[in-house]
Amino acid sequence: MPTARLAQVSDLALLLALFRQSQVSAAAEPIERAERIWAETCACESVAVFVSDADARIVATCMLITAPNLLRGGRGHAFIENVVTHPAYRGQGHGRAVIQAALAEAWARDCHHVLLQSGRKDPAVHRFYETCGFEPGVRTGYVAHRSA
Fold first, then answer.
1. DSSP count for the chain of H helices, then E strands
2. Which long-range contacts (CB under 8 A, 24 or more apart) does 35-42 make?
3. How far apart are CA 132 and CA 129, in angstroms?
4. What architecture is the 5-131 domain classified under in CATH?
5. What pLDDT digit, counting tens, does each position of 70-104 carry?
6. What contacts 28, CB < 8 A, 6 or more positions away?
7. Is-contact 27 16, C-beta < 8 A?
8. Res 26: pLDDT
9. Could you give the dihedral angle defined by the CA atoms of residues 121, 123, 125 and 128, in that order, rounded to the nearest 10 degrees?
10. What pLDDT does residue 24 have?
11. Please, are residues 77 and 35 in contact by the beta-carbon 8 Å criterion?
12. What's the confidence (pLDDT) of residue 22?
C-alpha cells in the first residue's frame, strides 16, 4: 500500500521530473525561478505538499492550501491543487495516498471543508475524486483569468 509524506526542500528535482509528465500544465522555468517558488512554498505555513514515492522517484503529489476564516465558527478553508500522478503509476494507490494525507492534514488544521476543482474531462479522474470523498455539484466553480 503506497504512503504519502510531506515534501522536503530537497525534493524539487524529483517534483519537476514528475511535472514533466503532467498532462495539465507546464512547470515553472527556468530552474532559478522554480527554485525561488519552491523555497517560498516550503516556507509557507499554510501550504503543505504531499508526495508518494516509488522506484526512487516521486510518482504522485498534491498541494494543500489552508486559509483562516471568520465564518463557519472560525473553522478554516482548505484547497487541494496540483494533483499529479505519473501515468505509469496510476491505479496503484499513490494518488489516493497523497489525497488522503492532504485531507487528514486539513481536518487536523480544523478546516470546515476542502475544495478541489478539476479541469480534466476524463470521467475516470472525476470518479477517482469521488471515491476519495469529494462530492460533485455541491458548489459552482468560477475562474477569472488575468487579461494579457
1. 4, 5
2. 38/9, 38/12, 39/9, 42/7, 42/8, 42/9
3. 5
4. 3-Layer(aba) Sandwich (3.40)
5. 999 999 999 999 999 999 999 999 999 999 999 99
6. 34, 37
7. yes
8. 86
9. 160
10. 73
11. no
12. 81
Segments of the chain scoring below 50 in pLDDT: none
Please give the single-letter amino acid code of residue 107. Answer: W
Beta bridge partners of 60: 52, 85
Among left, alpha and beta (phi > 0; psi -120 to 50; other), residue 125 is alpha
Instruction: State residue 23's pLDDT score.
Output: 72
0.70 cut: is pTM over it?
Answer: yes
Residue 66 zone, left/alpha/beta (φ > 0; ψ -120 to 50; rest)? beta
Segment holding 83, helix H or strand E:
strand 76-85
- Amino acid identity, residue 6? L
Query: DSSP state, 68?
Result: -
Residue 134 grid cell: 469529494
Where exactly are the structural domains of the chain?
5-131
What's the Cα-to-Cα distance from 90 to each of 34, 84, 114, 120, 141, rounded to whole Å? 26, 10, 23, 15, 26
